[in-house]
Write a structure and sequence with these properties.
Strand order of the largest sheet: 2-1-5-4-3
Structural class: alpha+beta
Helix content: 40-55%
Largest sheet: 5 strands, antiparallel
Number of strands: 12
Strand content: 15-25%
Distance between the termini: 81 Å
Shape: elongated
């Protein structure tokens, strides 16, 4: 503000000097001092010229700087003018906006780099008037669907009509569905289509995400196989390594000319250890066979309460021994169409887990409840144990994963497979020091 005032003072001072010089020149002409008067007018001319170039340069620099800012062109160099105090605030504004523009460009480059490295097809459309332009298309979308990075919606329609028709049918509104698209002229692949619309600073954007179901499934299958092989190799090595060591020891003993009573005792202990490890391996393999060869459910109508009572009859001796209270909140009568033996196995597995979870709990209680909604039946088993640690929540349904030394680690996996074979699902939830397993079955 002070510098602007100083600029106005300098302009005003120049005007006063010019007016004074004109007055002096007129005075000399009146005194008939022609030469002096002409010299005075020459001085006035020089002063006007100097003022003209001063104002001109001042306006030009302001115009150039403002034009650069408006056009987002920060390539101009004003270093030769920076020593002039009249432009300090202007150049400070220019430098500040230039720094913000560079920061924004850097962020855009990073964001685009991230989007281009995601294995999900992404298109962002921007609305202009009544038409849509392609604001961004990531590399995965372009290469996977063999689509050039076009800028107009109409060009994309020529390349992927199936996708564009679905989006236009919903009038560019939020979508979540599956779609079949031919990729590189091959057979159709199924994709999950998710689209959302948002408005930012009065600009309308439409974001489209395409995920290949095949890729997602293959990735999950690969992860499952890797985890399974880790568990199997771990279990096998845990048994084979000591067995091999024992066999080596037995071989040394057998090769001796004579065998003492102490050596004979070592042989007995070694054989006993080998039998235990062999039994463990046999149980492990049988558990794997149960998972891999689960028979199809043989469904029949059975009353839910009767099913629960059968399971409790099996588990009650254990519950009474450990003073565990079982509360059955199921009061309504409901027939469900299931394989009773398989569902009983699931319920017994969940009740067994609750039994061990309550081992060190101060309050030992298991609550069984059920709820019917539309054509679904929800069965809940809740215990007041210590709950499932967050670190292992995503592992509890993995084959052979267990936190108990005596556990085989197939109970929950087998239960999950049985429920899924019935067309339902099983889930768990930790809340207020309580763990709840919920079974959802779809009624035929």
């Amino acid at each position: 503000m002070l510098r602007s005032l100083q600029t106005y003072k300098l302009l005003f001072l120049r005007l006063i000097i010019i007016v004074a010089a004109i007055e002096v020149s007129i005075f000399f002409f009146k005194k008939e001092l022609l030469f002096t008067g002409v010299f005075g007018l020459f001085i006035v001319f020089l002063l006007i010229r100097e003022m003209y170039f001063y104002v001109r340069n001042f306006v030009l620099i302001y115009n150039k700087t403002i034009a650069s800012i408006l056009q987002n062109d920060f390539s101009s160099d004003f270093s030769k003018h920076k020593l002039n105090d009249n432009y300090t605030d202007l150049f400070r504004l220019y430098s500040s906006l230039k720094a913000k523009e560079n920061e924004q460009i850097s962020k855009d480059i990073i964001y685009r780099s991230i989007l281009n490295n995601i294995e999900t097809g992404i298109i962002i459309l921007q609305k202009q008037d009544n038409d849509w332009n392609i604001f961004l298309m990531n590399n995965y979308f372009s290469t996977h669907f063999n689509v050039p990075k076009v800028s107009k919606w109409k060009y994309l329609k020529n390349q992927l009509p199936a996708l564009c028709e679905i989006i236009e049918q919903d009038n560019f509104q939020e979508i979540k569905t599956s779609i079949e698209i031919s990729v590189n002229g091959q057979s159709n692949q199924t994709f999950v289509l998710q689209a959302s619309r948002t408005e930012i600073f009065e600009l309308d954007y439409f974001i489209v995400l395409l995920d290949s179901i095949q890729n997602v499934v293959e990735k999950k299958e690969k992860e499952a196989w890797v985890n399974l092989m880790k568990v199997i190799s771990h279990e096998l090595l845990n048994s084979i390594t000591p067995i091999r060591s024992i066999c080596q020891n037995l071989q040394d003993l057998v090769e001796q000319d004579s065998m003492s009573d102490e050596d004979l005792e070592d042989v007995k202990n070694s054989v006993s250890t080998m039998l235990r490890r062999s039994d463990h391996l046999q149980k492990f393999v049988e558990g794997y066979r149960k998972l891999a060869m689960l028979p199809s459910p043989k469904k029949e109508k059975i009353e839910l309460q009767h099913l629960i009572d059968n399971c409790l009859q099996v588990m009650n001796p254990l519950f009474k021994e450990k003073n565990i209270e079982v509360v059955n909140h199921i009061t309504f009568k409901r027939f469900i169409n299931v394989d009773s033996q398989q569902i009983e196995q699931v319920l017994i597995n969940l009740l067994t887990n609750s039994f061990y979870a309550l081992k060190d709990a101060s309050q030992k209680q298991i609550i069984i409840s059920a709820e019917a909604k539309e054509n679904r039946i929800f069965i809940k088993i809740t215990d007041t144990g210590n709950g499932i640690e967050k670190e292992i929540e995503n592992k509890i349904f993995l084959p052979f994963f267990t936190t108990r030394q005596e556990g085989a680690g197939i109970g929950l996996t087998l239960s999950k497979n049985i429920i899924e074979a019935h067309g339902g699902y099983i889930s768990h939830n930790n809340e207020e020091s309580k763990t709840t397993f919920e079974i959802c079955l779809v009624e035929d």
